[in-house]
Write a structure and sequence with these properties.
The protein has 187 residues and is α/β, with parallel strands linked by helices. It has 2 domains: 39 residues; 123 residues, Glutaredoxin (3-Layer(aba) Sandwich). 40% of the residues lie in helices and 17% in strands. A 7-stranded mixed beta sheet has the order 2-1-5-4-3-6-7, with helices on one face. β6 and β7 form a beta hairpin. The longest helix is centred in the N-terminal third of the chain and has 38 residues. It is elongated. The termini are far apart.
């Protein structure tokens, strides 16, 4: 009887040690998340060093919309607009597209994707004029805008220059980016 009791105590002790190690690992992960969250901007829009800088000329590009009609960025010359680089399967991109589909974008928006047309789900196809999805190949538009991040949004002003840019995952983030030049008095 005594050996069975010691065996049970031993198993219980091993379980406590194991759970302690799991808890310590989880606490380390939480501390890392807290450190990352402290660096996250309060307005929710992450400013990043990647991408064309504010003041640079937005590159011209062409592509094909999801409905098969050709698109040229020249069609938006003289109009303030958004260029959003995103792709299906990216969770943050999908959330942004869902939000635009539900509420619309604060400016005419061109969502550029390098994924094949068949990878774009129903929401991407049903933006109903709230944004145009433009397909392009080989990441040329992302390269021209100097980014590999998505969703990466660029506000292009009436003169064709980048007025603001950053990672945006909601319509509110897009609204903050659009308001940025106005608050700075540069628009």
């Amino acid at each position: 009887m005594i050996p069975a009791l010691w065996a049970a105590v031993g198993v219980l002790l091993l379980a406590v040690v194991f759970l302690g190690l799991v808890l310590a690992g989880a606490l380390r992960q939480l501390e890392e998340l807290r450190r990352r969250a402290e660096g996250w901007p309060q307005d929710g829009v992450e400013r990043i060093d990647e991408g064309l800088p504010v003041g640079a000329h937005a590159p011209a590009f062409q592509g094909t919309r999801l409905d098969g009609v050709g698109f040229s960025s020249a069609d938006l010359a003289g109009r303030e607009h958004l260029v959003i680089l995103a792709h299906p399967g990216c969770r943050s991109c999908e959330e942004l597209i869902d939000d635009i589909a539900a509420r619309g974008a604060p400016l005419p928006a061109i969502v550029v994707s390098d994924a094949p047309a068949e990878q774009h789900g129903l929401v991407w196809r049903s933006l109903n004029g709230r944004a145009s999805v433009v397909l392009e190949r080989e990441g040329r538009v992302a390269s021209a805008f100097r980014t590999e991040i998505s969703p990466h949004a660029f506000v292009v002003d009436r003169t064709g220059r980048i007025a603001a840019q950053g990672v945006a995952t909601t319509v509110e983030d897009l609204e903050r980016l659009v308001a940025e030049p106005l608050e700075g008095g540069e628009a």
